[in-house]
Amino acid sequence: MKKSVAGLAGAGTLSLVPFQVFADVSEDGFIELRAKETSKNLISEQYPASILWTYNGESPGPEIRAKRGERIKVRLINELSEATSIHWHGIRIENSMDGVAGLTQDPVPPGETFEYDFIVPDAGTYWYHAHTKSWNQVARGLYGPLIIEGDSEDFDAEHDITLVLDDWLLGQDGTLDILSLGSPGDWSHSGRLGNWLTVNGKPPHEVVINAGEAYRLRLMNVSNARSFEIDPNAFDAKILAFDGQATPGAQELGYSPMVLGSAQRVDLLVQPKSGGNFSINELSNGQTYPMVSFKVVGNKEALSGAIALRPNDLPEPDIEKATTFKLHMTGGAMGRIGETTYNGETMSGDDFINFKQFWAMNGVANLPEEPFFRVERNENVIIEIFNDTRFLHAMHMHGHHFRIIERVGVSIDEGQPFKDTFLIGALQTTRIAFVADNPGKWLFHCHMLEHAAAGMTTWFDVK
Ligand code: C2O
Ligand code: CU
């Protein structure tokens, strides 16, 4: 039986600064991330601890920070009992460092290490997470924030707040529900939805900020499948960036709630007035749940003046010249799947259940031998995606950011920002465009991690 979000007794705590752990760099210039089991209380000391999988004993793992254009070196040390790898979500990275087990690298076996070494070309809010059996490893806690600063930051450390939002499925005793991981019901429906929300690994708590000062809140959804519904209008927030990429100036949202799908990020600008306490309210379960509260102290007047982030230098797709590739998404409960192949064989009868492959893209469940498409480097590409299923999906492209150029059906009007992950509603068609300027093999998949594992994963090849 599923309990409601926050159905377990909550415990309020107070912190003066938001909880953030920063990565240390070792003598040889590597940040070490040790993937290991760690016991941690997700609710409070009154409940038994959960056995999580963490980087360096923390979930979220340590915040990695670098500047635009810098080189990052990370040594993954696998102390888990299964193989793992790390993906740097949203980074336009060199292909061999993308961390996708089975496509860009071999998974790192228990007891072994792997060295990641890459340049970060863009400023913004990104994250890292396990990309080997992600539905299992991310659900257990293997993720962390990756923040790339612009050359001149408008926000100092005190005014730059990372908020990692997660949704955990806890059992009656208040510990992480392990037995339900991989449940076929989750894989064929909405993915693994939890009943306990945390911000930076903690239950609802309070953060103290100053009136009249400008803060940048970096929200990231690291949950397996929940689309958070947040009301930024409730506290006068403006949008600075989606998925790391700056909007042209701080923008009003103009609609509510703002839906933050799995893996998506949004940077908000808040300039609280004296006495204007507020909280980040989550609405997706039909009730208002304050995930984190902000207590505003002092009575300084807000400064006026525009705040905008300098955009990254992304290649602008040329729609006229672009080649269109169509992607037909099928399957899931209550949906049609049609003829589907998996590992080169046509599935029938009980195969869908036995292999747990409930979804397909262009008639293929999971990584096909041949890519969805092959293009020459710097080609302009449009992907036209038709979601012929009864479910919402959060589609993510590796190695590139794209513009959403058209949506048909349920439209979410946020202009045409660059993104790395977009939501597509049931029976909706969306067209995205990008310049395929990054050579290699890149995944395109649903970031609801059960959907990805159950068939919604394909790839494309840039020569
Ligand atoms: Cu966030 Cu395929 O990844
Ligand atoms: Cu999906």
Task: Label this structure with key terms.
4 helices; single chain; mainly beta; Immunoglobulin-like; 463 residues; binds CU-O-CU linkage; 33 strands; 40% strand; six-stranded mixed beta sheet; 3 domains; binds copper (II) ion; disordered N terminus; globular
Descriptive notes:
With 463 residues, the chain is mainly beta. It has 3 domains: 11-150, Immunoglobulin-like; 168-297, Sandwich (Immunoglobulin-like); 319-462, Cupredoxins -  blue copper proteins (Immunoglobulin-like), CATH 2.60.40.420. It contains 4 helices and 33 strands. The protein has helices spanning 134-137, 184-188, 351-354, 449-453, and strands at 13-15, 31-40, 50-55, 64-67, 71-78, 86-89, 113-119, 124-130, 143-149, 160-168, 196-199, 205-210, 215-221, 228-230, 238-242, 245-251, 258-260, 265-270, 278-282, 289-297, 323-331, 341-342, 345-346, 359-361, 373-375, 379-387, 393-397, 402-408, 418-419, 421-424, 429-436, 440-446, 457-462. The chain has a 6-stranded mixed beta sheet with strand order 11-10-13-18-15-16, with no helix packed on it. A hairpin with a 6-residue loop joins strand 19 and strand 20. The chain is globular. Copper (II) ion (CU) is lined by residues 393, 446, 448, 451, 456.
